[in-house]
Each structure stands twice: as structure tokens, then as C-alpha cells.
Design goal:
By secondary structure, the chain is mainly alpha-helical. It contains twelve helices and no strands. The chain has one domain. α6 runs antiparallel to α8 and α6 packs across α9. 32% of the residues are buried. InterPro entries: Fatty_acid_hydroxylase, Sterol_Desaturase_Related. GO terms for molecular function: iron ion binding; oxidoreductase activity. It is found in: Membrane.
Length: 250
């Protein structure tokens, strides 16, 4: 019932959702909204010691001069690169909005499977781009400009990296034939987890603290990757790094 109410609210904005502009607006707005709390935290932490203790690398704080280029690059990529791609996707696969919302167990299962698939795809892509020097220097090195990450470095990357990872995120719900609402929820969860990974903070309510047995690495796991470069290639979960011997305890 709660999902049907939510879906009715979404479908009430049918003209917007079926617009070719919706995917890029949805993506950029969600990304900036998820970054904003961490941007605020970055400015407050330099003045409040009670917040500073949650910074993973407390000796390093982003400045406004570091943040602005990240925002400009993200806005440019969304307008010049992501929008044409999503426009062709909109043309090729017109949006269809069913009347009924999906069942909650179905949403939870499919979002989890999409995350696991994305995690595996990203791990292989990431490992390959670190093990092959040409790939690293040509495509992935841009993302490693900042050894101490902050939220806005999440999408600070080359065009190839942005489009590759965007393709992985987009194709998985299509392959699973997810409901449009499930697809939206997955995109939101994926963007949030990516931003949290790069936030540079280990907060009491961080996702990795909510998932038991160390199955989810979270911000400490990924922050260590940016610091050490040669371990922790999976974005979210830890099982692939453990299996391939690339796991380092954060």
C-alpha cells in the first residue's frame, strides 16, 4: 500500500517523467542533494572538534577551490555527455508507466541484485584499469587526483569512466526487467552509496556499520583504496576483494 501511494505520487508527474530531460535532471539533482550534507560537514568539521573525529583523514580537508572544479565538471558532464546518451535511450526505449506499483519484497530483492551486479562489474572494471598501466594513465588516473576523498570527488572522473559506470548502473535494471519505481530506487541508492564511499567520513550511522560481518566496506574501505591504490577495488561489498586477495583492512 505504501508503495502504491508513492507510485501514484510519481505517476502524477507523468509529463516530467516521460520527458527526455528527466533522467539527467534526476541524476544531477540527486547527486548534488546527497553531496550537500557532506559539503556542510567539511566546512563545519574544521571548526568543531566533535565532528572532526569522524574524518577518516583528519589532516586533510577540501577547500572551496577544490570543490568548485568538481561541481563544474559534473555539471558539464551531465549537460554535454549524459544528456545526449539518455536522450537516445529515451528515444530507443520510451518510458512506460504501469498503473500498479511493485511489491515491497520484489523491490528489495531487485535493488539488492542490481547492487551486487554493479559491484561485480565495477570490481572487474576497476581492477583492470589498475593492472593495465595504459588504462590507468589514460582513463582512471583523473579519479585518483585526490588521495583524500570528499563527496564531490565521486563523479570527478574521465568521460570513459563516467559513461562506463553509468552504463553498468543503467543496464542492470533493464536486464532484470525491473519496475520503473524499482529502477528509480536503485539509482538513488547507488548514487547515495557512491557519495558516501567518497565522503571521507566514518559516521556512526554509515552503511558499513549497519551491514554485519564486514560484508560491506563503505567509506573506510574505499578511502583506503585512494590512499594506497593497490587494494579494495570493489565499490561496496568486500567479498570480491577477499576472494581475489586484494582486500586490505581499513
Amino acid at each position: 500500500l505504501c508503495l502504491q501511494v508513492l507510485w501514484d505520487f510519481v505517476t502524477a508527474k507523468e509529463l516530467l517523467i516521460k520527458s527526455p530531460y528527466f533522467p539527467v535532471l534526476f541524476s544531477f539533482t540527486a547527486y548534488m542533494a546527497f553531496c550537500l550534507p557532506y559539503i556542510t560537514l567539511d566546512f563545519l568539521s574544521t571548526r568543531l572538534p566533535c565532528l572532526r573525529k569522524y574524518k577518516i583523514q583528519p589532516q586533510s580537508y577540501p577547500t572551496l577551490g577544490m570543490m568548485v572544479p568538481c561541481i563544474i565538471q559534473s555539471a558539464y558532464h551531465h549537460a554535454v555527455l549524459i544528456f545526449p546518451v539518455t536522450f537516445f535511450h529515451w528515444y530507443w526505449r520510451p518510458v512506460k508507466l504501469p498503473v500498479m506499483a511493485p511489491e515491497l519484497p520484489e523491490v528489495l530483492l531487485e535493488v539488492t541484485v542490481c547492487l551486487l551486479l554493479f559491484d561485480f562489474e565495477y570490481f572487474l572494471w576497476h581492477l583492470l584499469h589498475h593492472r593495465v598501466p595504459w588504462l590507468y594513465k589514460t582513463f582512471h588516473k583523473v579519479h585518483h587526483k585526490h588521495v583524500s576523498t570528499f563527496a564531490l570527488t565521486t563523479q570527478y572522473s574521465s568521460v570513459w569512466e563516467l559513461l562506463s559506470l553509468g552504463f553498468f548502473a543503467a543496464i542492470n535494471p533493464v536486464l532484470l526487467r525491473c519496475h520503473p519505481l524499482t529502477e528509480m530506487i536503485f539509482f538513488l541508492v547507488n548514487i547515495w552509496l557512491s557519495v558516501e564511499d567518497h565522503s571521507g567520513y566514518d559516521l556512526p550511522w554509515s552503511t558499513h556499520r549497519l551491514v554485519p560481518f564486514g560484508l560491506y566496506g563503505g567509506a573506510p574501505h574505499h578511502d583506503l583504496h585512494h590512499l594506497k591504490f593497490k587494494s579494495n577495488y570493489a565499490p561496496y561489498f568486500t567479498h570480491w576483494d577477499r576472494l581475489f586477495g586484494t582486500f586490505t583492512e581499513s
